[in-house]
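Researcher: Following up on the earlier apo prediction. This time include the ligand. It's flavin-adenine dinucleotide, with the SMILES given after the sequence.
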Amino acid sequence: MEKVVIIGAGPCGLLLAHYLLRRGDRYQVEIYERLGDPTKVALSDSRTIPYSLNERGLGALRPIEGLEEAMQTAGVENWKIVRHKAKGKIQLLPRRQQATVDIDRIRVVKTLLSSLVAMAEGSGRLKLHFNYKCIGVDFPRQTLLLESVSPEATAELQPLLVHYDRLVGADGARSTVRSQFLKTQSFDFEQTRYRSCYKTLFFPSKNDETGYELQPQGFHVWQPEEGITLIAGPQQSGGYVGVIFAPRNRQDILNFQSLTQVKEFFRQYFPEASLLLTDTEAEALVKRPISSQLKIRCSRYHHEDRVLLIGDAAHAVGSSATGQGCNAALEDAQIFARLLDEWEDSWEIALAKFTEERQPDAHALGELDGNIIPISQILFAEFILRERWAKIAHRWFPQLVAPPLRELMNSNTPYAEILNKYRRWVAKVKASNLKFD
Ligand SMILES: Cc1cc2nc3c(=O)[nH]c(=O)nc-3n(C[C@H](O)[C@H](O)[C@H](O)COP(=O)(O)OP(=O)(O)OC[C@H]3O[C@@H](n4cnc5c(N)ncnc54)[C@H](O)[C@@H]3O)c2cc1C
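Model: Understood. Below is the ligand-bound prediction.
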């Protein structure tokens, strides 16, 4: 039995573990995760983010019995985007073709984890280690160094040395496994910091005192000023998980010093959301850190026949209103599993094929991300018109006119194909968005 060590129990690492454990007695899977067990952390204490899972991500769960249904049950089916405009006006952007599932990251991880544990129970083929951070990798020796970051860990505790037969770096945009690739020959890597930073927040859907309520079953977006955005996805619990974005060169506006400052900020930029923000949450926002996102581009996703980079570790993109990173990460796991099928578990071939097959799409995603929806309000109006026109024209002339861009992004059409169809629009948005840097 081969020992596969996965670093990172995020959506991608956990889904890949599912796929590996379904391959009979061939693999023993050991997962090391820097954070604590998500089933033991309250949502309000976590730094979760709202996801919209589309056909790409949901389709990657489908081959595993019950997983897509479990995710749908844990999330909320969403048929529209609600754009909040000035003076309380709203614009509805329906998702007529395909609903997405709105769910926060912690629930995605918990759902994948609980079904993984249930599936592997009693087999002895799954070992989960939370609060273990990978701090070093030795490719020639096939070993990893892991340090306990548990709150109970003492300074005297020695790092753990772990041997692997195969190693999977599913450790996100700031991957430690990937940093070892930099020491190998002919590996090129680009990292770009996004022009915006963000803070996450939670709020209820209704203010019980005033009766104010957000339109249900929608993903809400406020963009009062170019570069300043609040997005909020409905959650199974009834409330919303949201993210406030601000340009990095104005990040001070998110650096709240007091509850009053938070409330003033919300009244100024997001008056409707301010009606829902509780004092407890406003206080939590003062303490919550400002985060930033990275775009990652690598020249390969494997090392020899032993190591795989997958998900954000291989090709992270920002959230930039198209919400693809998690969907693409889940799709990665499904693609790698298919390659193991096709090549009868020859990692030597499957790894090389993964880079070959996945890279054009990952690079195309990097190009699409941030360059689909314009920041400029004028160009945004053009985008909406184009999407409506494409919807009608595609119905009449399917060979000549591509489906709307947003619809394609939410389907499982390969990203390289989407970029091919929309190259001119993407170039136009890119040129326009650069002016906001
Ligand atoms: C604000 C925001 C909104 C987003 N919205 C969407 C959306 O709507 N739809 C969508 O598809 N995507 C969205 N994304 C992107 C999405 O978050 C990522 O693409 C997705 O989480 C990638 O999954 P992953 O498993 O590859 O990596 P991650 O989710 O980053 O998981 C990596 C895991 O590895 C662990 N780890 C890291 N380093 C180590 C180490 N050294 N040792 C041990 N463990 C380690 C981390 O703790 C983490 O649990 C959004 C991102 C942001 C920031």
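Model: The chain has three domains: 2-45+53-75+105-191+293-368, 194-292, 377-434.
Researcher: Noted. I'll compare it with the apo version next.
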